[in-house]
Amino acid sequence: MFNGGMNNMQGMMKKVQKMQAEMVKLQEELKTRTIETTAGGGAVTLVVNGKKELESIKIDPAAVDPEDVEMLQDLIVTAVNEGMRKIDEMTEKEMSKVTGGIKLPGGML
């Protein structure tokens, strides 16, 4: 009985190691992906990468109103927050493919 248990444990450990290797590979690949998001009907468009870095931002000149700078600032914040949310969503979706839907603590991703 003990011997059969050891075989099961070894098999489980191999599966865990394989999953860990797949997760590391996926994490590296996700860092290279980008998403584009907009705010204000396209007034602000930005690209965020998988490392949660803002790569580019485009502002429609029509959105630049010297009398209402606060609105432009709000649009930028909204677009950045949406970009970060989408990166998190993409990462969680891709990781769940590797983990079989098991939710892992934040430090393990």
Please tell me about this protein's structure.
InterPro entries: Bacteriocin_signal_seq, YbaB-like_sf, YbaB/EbfC. Keywords: Coiled coil, DNA-binding. This is Nucleoid-associated protein. It is a single chain. With 109 residues, the protein is an alpha+beta fold. It has helices at residues 2-32, 69-99, and strands spanning 34-39, 44-49, 54-59. The chain has one domain: Nucleoid-associated protein YbaB-like domain (Ybab, Chain: A). It is built from two helices and three strands; from the N terminus they run H-E-E-E-H. The protein has a three-stranded antiparallel beta sheet. The protein is rod-shaped.
Quick tags:
17% strand; 109 residues; 2 helices; alpha+beta; Ybab, Chain: A
Write the layout of secondary structure elements.
Layout lengths: L1 H31 L1 E6 L4 E6 L4 E6 L9 H31 L10
Antiparallel strand pairs: 1-2, 2-3
Largest sheet, spatial ordering of strands: 1-2-3
CATH top level label: Alpha Beta
Fourth CATH level, the homologous superfamily: Nucleoid-associated protein YbaB-like domain
Helix content class: 55-70%
Major sheet characteristics? 3 strands, antiparallel
Shape assignment:
rod-shaped
Structural class: alpha+beta
Secondary structure: number of strands: 3
Average predicted local confidence, pLDDT: 88
GO cellular component, one term: cytosol
Keywords: Coiled coil, DNA-binding
InterPro entries: Bacteriocin_signal_seq, YbaB-like_sf, YbaB/EbfC
GO molecular function, one term: DNA binding
